[in-house]
Amino acid sequence: MTRFIDNCFLVDNGLIEQITTCPFKGKTSFIDNRRTAGESAALRFGHHIHAALAFRNRKHFYGHEVDEGKQVRILEHHFMSTPCENEGYRNFENAVKVIKGYNTDPMVAADKSTILPHPKYGWPMVEQPFAIEIPRTIAGRCIIYIGRIDRVVKFPEGVFVRDYKTTSMLGETTWNEAQMSEQLKGYCWALKESTGIEPVGYVYDAIAVRESIQNAIFDDILGKIIAPPTKSGKPGAAVPLTFESQRFFTKEPAGQLDEWFENMLHQVETFLWHYDRNIFPRHHYHCRGKYGMCEFFNVCSLPERSRATALASNAFEENKWSPLYRK
Questions:
Q1: Would 245 be classed as within a structural domain?
Q2: Spatial separation of the C-alpha atoms in residues 171 and 162, rounded to whole Å
C-alpha cells in the first residue's frame, strides 16, 4: 500500500507500531512495502476467525440467529483462498472448533451489548473503516489517520469500541498490554472524530487458542471444547480454548484521547524527520520479540549494499495490506 498520496501521509496502527519499534523496520515494511513471502500462520488464522465473527455480528444486528453453517463456509473459503502447507494447529478444522466454542460459550451468551448503527448511514458498525484528515500538517504534509474498527457496541454504561484479539497466550501481560493499547485508544479517537460519538472506552475480547486444540473435540451435548484425554485415559487438564473480556475506560478521566492524539503526531513527526533525511536507525533490542526473530533480521544483518537485492528476492513480497479493505 502506498503511504504517500498527493503530499499526504497515510498512518495506521500497524505503521505506528513498527516505526516506534524500529524505524528501519517501519521504513522497510511501509515505505519499501516489503514483507516476508506468505502471511504468518498466526496472523492468517486470526484474520479468518475475524471474518466468521464479523458475519455473526451483522446477523445479530439485524435480529437474525447466527448461521453457523455459513460461518463454516466463510472459514473454508478463506482457508482455501490462502493455502499454506505448514499451518500447524492453526488450520481450518481447528478454526471451526473455535467458532463452535464461541457460539456456545456462556460468557458470549450472557453478553448484553448491541451493535450500534452508523449515525449517518444506518448500517451496523462492524468492520467499520475510517480515514480522518488531521487538521494540521507535519513536515509540509497532511496526515490521514486510517483504520478499521471491529465493532462499535452499546452497553447500559454507554458506547464502547470493541476488538477481537486471537492469541496463544493469555494472562496478566495480555491485559497490561490491552490497557496501554495505542491502537484501541486511536480507534476511540477516530470514532469520536468521524461520527461525533465519544465512546466510554473500549472492550478487549481475547480468544486464546492453544496447541492442545489440535486433538480436542467439540462435544455437541455439552456444547464446549473437550481437551484430549491423558495417556492413562483420564480427562485431560489442558485448556485448548478460552474466551475472556475486559473493559478499559477512556472518557474518564478526561484527556486520554487528546494525549493519544498528540503522542501519535509526535511519533509521526519523528519518523518523517528520518524519512526526509533518509536516516533510519535500527533498534537491535527488538531483533527478537515474543513471537520470534524480526522478519527482516537476515536483511538487516547484510551489508547495506546488499539489502535491496535481498528484499527483491522471492523470500519477500509486496506489502499490500491496508485496513481500508480486505482481500
A1: yes
A2: 19
| Other beta carbons within 10 Å of 246 | 13
Q: Is residue 98 part of a domain?
A: yes
Q: How confident is the model at residue 230 (pLDDT cuts 50, 70, 90)?
A: confident
- How many CB atoms within 10 Å of residue 240? 24
Return the DSSP state at 28: H
Q: What are phi and psi of 138, to 5 degrees?
A: -130, 125
Predicted model pTM:
0.93
**What pLDDT score was predicted for residue 82?**
78
- In the chain, what's the furthest Cα-to-Cα distance? 69
- If one counts the domains in the chain, the total is 1
CA angle 8, 9, 10 (to 5 degrees): 115
Return d(Cα 57, Cα 126) in angstroms, integer. 7
Contact 68, 53 (CB under 8 A): no
103 CB-near residues (< 8 Å, 6+ apart): 56, 66, 68, 71
Give a yes or no: residue 323 inside a domain. Answer: no
Distance CA 87, CA 71 (A): 20
Q: How confident is the model at residue 250 (pLDDT cuts 50, 70, 90)?
A: very high
The CATH number linked to 277 is 3.90.320.10
Helix (H, G, I), strand (E, B) or coil at 207: strand
- Hey, is 205 helix, strand or coil? strand
Contact assessment for residue 176 and residue 192, using Cβ atoms and an 8 Å cutoff: no
Find the domain containing 192 and state its range: 4-318
Measured distance CA(112)–CA(20) in Å, rounded: 37
Q: What is the pLDDT of residue 145?
A: 98
Is there a domain that residue 325 lies in? no
pLDDT tens-place string over residues 272-325: 999 999 999 999 999 987 778 899 999 999 999 999 999 999 999 999 888 887
Query: Residue 233: its pLDDT value, please?
Result: 65
